[in-house]
Amino acid sequence: MNVTRGFTGRPRVHRPGLPPGQYDAGDDWPVLSAEVTPDLAPADWTFRVDGLVEEDRTWTWEQAHALPGSVYEGDIHCVTSWSKFGVRFGGVSVDAFLDAVRPLPSATHAVAYSHTGYTTNLPLADLTGGKAWIAFTYDGRPLAPEHGGPARLLVPHLYFWKSAKWIAGLRLLDHDEPGFWEQNGYHARGNPWEEQRYSGD
Amino acid sequence: MTEISSPPAFTPPTRFAIPGRIAVTHQGASVWQTATLTEIRRETPRAATFRFAVPAWVGHVPGQHLQLRLTAEDGYTAQRHYSLASAPDDSGHIELTLDHVEGGEVSGWFHSEARPGDRVEVRGPVSGFFAWPGDRPALLIGAGSGVVPLMSMVRHHRARGLDVPLRLLVSARSPQELIYAREYGPETTAVFTRSAPAGMPVGRMTAAHLEPLLAEQPPGGWEAYVCGSNAFAEHATRLLVAAGQPVDRIRVERFG
């Protein structure tokens, strides 16, 4: 252990639910994205699921909102080491979209991509079983553009770079294909509890 | 059921990745190494530059950042990401310029406790999207400590004697809070938001500041790099887009 002389850190308050190496950002919700926030109106937003599926499908804003609603209440964790407790997102479970396109048995992974061209990869198992959402609201209000509005992917059990802002679609694949940050040296999966920050962690 | 063979490699609707021309290394991203503090230079009342010896540093491209870790005696660690301020040619040494954040546990240690000889851990460099290798005309726009990665680019430009056009538009609250004030040359235009030297206007960056820079557009156009708080980044990128700068030629680094 390499102790830093004179460093004591914050008072240790045991915070259940805080993954290793993270701190509680409190009311802050930092914005991190390398791109220009797009001017994307709900009427222009679409969400497509294709690749290894029985039937491709694209949903408009209204069609997506016609699916059964689903809420996530819990915590989120950013790789830059902040975590945010007790957030509430409203949207539609990714399961609802996948049920409609019927993934082929060969589908094992997905690339999520945004309306700006951002990409991130996920094992299909991290998107199914009530673990992922297409989120439209935060705390009961429309999701702000800088936080990914009108719609973002939400995969709260992984570091937040997986939760692609301005989500445009999922392409199902039979192999893992690194996305934007993964090509930039970040970990392929990004599990906060195992501190999977960078490739090789 | 539709028969589908394995889909080809996925290409997003717009290209959003490290441009092929920028060669960055990720070999330092997973290895923690010891950085020894060798010098502290005050920049402004709130910001100071910390110079470290990192003998095994693999090098970086201006605009990249690193991860830094402090460890307490009981094993508690705090990790933060910081942009590199130094030029890549500063062999075996790197520099970070840190604001003293109110109540910040890491910046607080640096500003109140740190002294030459202290050791911290770093790994990196990480990320390459905001990197600028010095091959294309660059329009740099920063505010506050957002100027740090941009200064790495300016220093690189000077150290290598590059003749590719480079302009820096930097916003600070006052002349006293302008980081690296002594180092700017004719490539730099400063904007002051709270107080300015006699004869200079006070106020936030506007389209009028960008106009002359975009008017003297070099052949092939500018590659724009924007760095600062989220509010500043949103403001500056909106000005750029409104002035006609292509969205896919704007790179943004936000201090969340």
Features:
heterodimer; A: 201 residues; mainly beta; 6-stranded mixed β-sheet; B: 256 residues; alpha/beta; 5-stranded parallel β-sheet; globular
What quaternary form is this? Answer: heterodimer
The string of secondary-structure elements of chain A, in order, is: EEEHEEHEEEEEEH
Beta-strand proportion of chain B: 25-35%
Give the count of helical stretches of chain B. 4
Evaluate the radius of gyration of chain A: 17 Å
> How far is it from the N-terminal to the C-terminal residue of chain A, by CA?
17 Å
Compute the average pLDDT of chain A.
95
**Shape label of chain A:** globular
Query: What is the largest interface, and how many residues per chain?
Result: A-B, 60 and 61 residues
Q: What overall geometry of chain B do the principal axes of the alpha carbons give?
A: globular
Strand adjacency order, main sheet of chain B: 4-3-6-1-2-5
- The computed structural class of chain B is alpha/beta
Structural class of chain A: mainly beta
- What does the main sheet of chain A amount to? 6 strands, mixed
Order of helices and strands of chain B: EEEEEHEEHEEHEHE
H/I helix tally of chain A: 3
DSSP strand count of chain B: 11
- Helical proportion of chain A, percent range: under 10%
Q: Strand content of the residues of chain A, in percent?
A: 25-35%
Can you characterise this structure?
The complex is a heterodimer of chains A (201) and B (256). Chain A is 8% helix and 30% strand. Chain A has three helices and eleven strands, in the order βββαββαββββββα. Chain A has helices at 61-65, 94-101, 180-183; strands at residues 23-24, 46-51, 57-60, 70-77, 82-93, 109-114, 119-123, 133-138, 141-142, 152-154, 167-173. In chain A, strands 1, 4, 5, 8, 9 and 10 form a six-stranded mixed sheet that branches. In chain A, a hairpin with a 4-residue loop joins β4 (70-77) and β5 (82-93). Chain B is α/β, with parallel strands linked by helices and 256 residues long. Chain B has four helices and eleven strands; from the N terminus they run βββββαββαββαβαβ. Chain B starts with 32 loop residues before the first strand and ends with a strand. Classes of the chains: A mainly beta (201), B alpha/beta (256).
